[in-house]
């Protein structure tokens, strides 16, 4: 079982809050960074660079203003575009098929908005991931837990 982190900075506290029930390993996988690196950010020992901050924003759907300063609301508006780029139809088809298969196999009941957020997060991750990386069932389960937690 992972050790409970003791953040030494407000940024670290907000990183832990934004991660919520999502495991450190699952978030690290989504961010394409080692879990120890994520743990160091959460402890306040190191700080992510600009590109990683943007990935954190995109993956968790949080405001960088809130993450960096604590000002404003944590969550971005639901109408935030996927990534400002054209949608890759093949990637989207694979994400939708994978999520539908996972939901059916696990006999889950997701609300339409939960399913949309899940697919958006996975699409963002898939667009930035190497082509040979497979999205695992544990990652999908962790994202569902993240999506279902109360917005703060």
Give a verbal description of the structure:
This protein has eight helices and no strands. It has helices at residues 10-19, 24-31, 35-43, 50-60, 64-69, 89-106, 112-128, 137-148. Helix 7 packs across helix 8 (137-148). By secondary structure, the chain is mainly alpha-helical. The protein starts with 9 loop residues before the first helix and ends with a helix. The chain has one domain (10-148).
How many extended strands?
0
The ordered string of helix (H) and strand (E) elements is HHHHHHHH
* Nearest-integer average pLDDT: 79
Residue share in helices? 55-70%
- N- and C-termini, Cα separation: 26 Å
User: How many independent structural domains?
Assistant: 1
Point out poorly predicted stretches: 78-83
What topology does this entry show?
Elements: H1 10-19, H2 24-31, H3 35-43, H4 50-60, H5 64-69, H6 89-106, H7 112-128, H8 137-148
Helix pairs in contact: 1-3, 2-3, 2-8, 6-7, 7-8
């Amino acid at each position: 079982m992972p050790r409970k982190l003791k953040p030494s900075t407000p940024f670290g506290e907000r990183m832990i809050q934004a991660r919520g029930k999502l495991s450190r390993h699952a978030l690290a996988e989504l961010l394409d960074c080692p879990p120890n690196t994520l743990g160091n950010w959460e402890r306040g020992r190191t700080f992510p660079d600009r590109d990683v901050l943007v990935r954190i924003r995109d993956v968790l759907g949080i405001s960088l203003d809130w993450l960096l300063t604590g000002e404003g609301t944590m969550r971005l508006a639901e109408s935030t575009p996927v990534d400002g780029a054209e949608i890759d139809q093949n990637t989207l088809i694979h994400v939708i098929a994978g999520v539908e298969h996972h939901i059916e196999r696990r006999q889950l009941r997701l609300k339409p908005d939960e399913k949309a957020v899940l697919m958006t997060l996975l699409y963002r991750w898939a667009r930035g991931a190497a082509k040979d990386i497979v999205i695992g069932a544990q990652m999908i389960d962790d994202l569902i837990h993240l999506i279902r937690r109360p917005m703060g």
